[in-house]
Amino acid sequence: MRVLSAPLRHMASAARPLLRGVVFDLDGTLTVPNLDFREMHERCGVPMKEDLLAAVRQMSPERQQSAWKVIEEMEGEGRRTLELAEGALELGRWLQRHGLPTALVTRNSASTVGWLHDKLWSPAGIPAFHPALSRDDVEHDKPHPAALEAIAREWNQQLGPGLLMVGDSPSNDIGFGKAAGVSTALVDPRRRFREGDSSYGADVVIDSLLELPQLLWKTFDIPGPLGSTSAQTLARKSEPLPETAACRAAVDGDIAALKAMAREDLLAADSSGNTPLVWAADAGKADAVESLLAAGVEVNVKGYLGNTAVSRACRRGHDSVLRVLLRSGTGVDLDEPNEKMQSPLHFAAFKQKTEAVKLMLAAGASTTSLDRKGRTPAEDTSDPNIRELILQARASL
């Protein structure tokens, strides 16, 4: 469920700003909330209606020291159970693939930011947020706009609708973004802020970070070679033909010819980038695929347009080939994207290959992988039954 306020509806139908960077809150946005703020306020002696950090900074030195000790203690406990919110990694990878900078502004400590990077973010192969500003790094806490001003300077950008602030607090995050004049997205999984003005006029209200990429594609111009502003991304190319003897034998399903060839011939790609394995998968030759795998060819090699054998089998709906690949025990990558960020499950869903979808889901393919337009496989099909299969698999995890 997503809600667009008037400014973003206008943006979606008229001139769209170029997305130039995304700034995130941490607790409750990138991570699942795990701090009891009511207890924190009570232990610090600050009423819930007051801003905790502002109140602590105004305390006497003795009271302030005691309050900071409580906050640090509770945050330290929270770090041990910190986990990423739904869609956080997928969104991070999507922004990375589009070359968009990301930053972090949080009222949490620098230790918590470091924990996020070291334990949850960097192990997934996603660059650290830069700048990553904690309460220890800023003179003014959110919602004061100074941190966003500093990030814009670091990025050599101007504040404006091309920058996006994403957070779960209407006052501390949306008010923060509005004060700086940037676009805003409110993450509201429990739908607490959707009535009246409780969302502080957020441009977007979403249930999950997983919804955000497709919404960004629809409402912003996305830069880069994979983005909406690229003139060459969607350029059609004619389907290639197999060129080498091994590739032709694979397409013909000529097992005897393949077995008589040297291993280097079975591994070699033709000018399209396809290896014999990719050609055999595309042609639906399950026996040839099995023979090539037995000869030790690389199962995850990318061919034409960056597609693997699994991708080609899913796209064509060659279920017998897919079964061979999935049971091969050769470390097959179920989710390897092609040049346009389409995963094999995207192909099976888009091409309405129901049996291929079932096989991929049973094997554990990701239901949350994102293509370049920010769509998951469930959003990339016009078949309601396939969409339901994918969503049911996601819900069962």
Automatic annotation (TrEMBL):
Hydrolase keyword on record: yes
Domain of life: Eukaryota
PROSITE patterns per UniProt: ANK_REP_REGION (PS50297), ANK_REPEAT (PS50088)
Keyword Hydrolase set for record: yes
One Pfam family it belongs to: Ank_2
Keyword annotations of the record: Hydrolase
Single GO term (MF): hydrolase activity
Protein name: Haloacid dehalogenase-like hydrolase domain-containing protein
Organism placement in taxonomy: Eukaryota, Sar, Alveolata, Dinophyceae, Suessiales
